[in-house]
């Protein structure tokens, strides 16, 4: 059975958490740049801390990388209790992605200082469009791209897991 001792798995978390986050971000941002979606999670994360667009992109990538590592820790805890086969990682990532598009994105306008709500609309401070249910306001393929990228995050973490 896998060890729950996270200190034993720090090297795995550092390397594979970076690889999985990098791949997931590349898929998400690639889809954004290719016009499949207008969603840029690093940009949205960055606008939590600054209203300056250029700074938001830089801060967003830093926060997104740190968040990826934190989620890698949660995935390791899942792997420790359920095993770390590739399919466990894929299903965990799928569940994570579904949660993201069904719960997190629709609630984001209520906690994000710069996203307008569906009820109040834009203001001088809240100028970003709300994602809406499944992130559909950012493009019809947004939920597919997001769930696929999260699923790949879990798959990559599981494939690299030392007890996999």
Describe this structure in words.
This protein is an all-alpha fold. It has one domain. Helices cover 66% and strands 0% of the residues. It has five helices and no strands. It has helices spanning 10-33, 41-49, 53-82, 86-111, 142-160. α2 crosses α3. The mean pLDDT is 90.
Task: Provide a brief overview of the structure.
By secondary structure, the chain is mainly alpha-helical. The chain has 5 helices and no strands.
Topology, pairings included?
Layout (H helix, E strand, L loop, with lengths): L9 H24 L7 H9 L3 H30 L3 H26 L30 H19 L4
Keywords:
164 residues, mainly alpha, 5 helices
Structural class by secondary-structure content: mainly alpha
Gyration radius (Cα, Å) is: 16 Å
Q: What portion of residues belong to β-strands?
A: under 5%
Q: Could you name the ranges where pLDDT drops below 50 across 5 or more consecutive residues?
A: none
Main beta-sheet strand count, sense and barrel state: none
Q: What is the number of beta strands?
A: 0
**What is the overall silhouette?**
globular
- The amount of helix comes to 55-70%
Number of domains: 1
Helix segment tally: 5
The helix-strand sequence is HHHHH
Our measurement of the CA-to-CA distance between the termini, rounded to an integer number of angstroms, reads 10 Å
Mean pLDDT: 90
